[in-house]
Amino acid sequence: MSGLLNARYKTVTLAFPAGTRAEPVRQADLAGIVRQEASGNVLTMLFAGNIRDLLDFARQLPIADIHIGEPSLEEVFMHEYGTDRERA
Questions:
Q1: CB-based contact 49:36 (threshold 8 Å)
Q2: What pTM, to 2 d.p., does this model score?
Q3: Domain ranges across the chain
């Protein structure tokens, strides 16, 4: 439970210009990515790294929009404790 309370998770959504396919980010390029999903021209991440590193990384990308927010409690809980299927 202490990990849940001390973690500084953020949800990050990077939208690329229309016609640009979002690609997953390599952990070597940006530390702190917990989970990510690319769909069309949007990349969504659960991020627990240094926010300045994230902004420096995003500055290098041809993004059309960025949204950084707080993840839902369910999202953080599922990361910290997993699902029944993951434990089986």
A1: no
A2: 0.78
A3: 2-87
